[in-house]
């Protein structure tokens, strides 16, 4: 149900941004802070500012980031080779860039407050062939929980 932003909430949106304000309001109303939950969000809501805030509130977060967002280092914006993975850490945040396929024009950027700079290898059997894939664990978790 849509409610027009007024008063205090409107000034909160102006200061922090809509995505930040929506996540914070939902977490407060559902009384989910300080319980160790891990939330997964898309690039509309994700920001380093929100991730640090949630971490201070006892909540972990993993989310995709837009390439043009403030604070993204240049080495994460340049085009990656197929299969290339880069990690950057500034506690408590870890920034991940990963390009899986040639058909991807740009790498995927993810931000997490609980991930590790590690890859996971999985194998699937298709008929007589075994297909082995290696992906960063942060991406596997994000894909698993975001659907």
From TrEMBL:
Query: Could you tell me which residue ranges the PiggyBac transposable element-derived protein domain spans?
Result: 20-147
State the name under which the record lists this protein: PiggyBac transposable element-derived protein domain-containing protein
Organism of origin: Homalodisca liturata
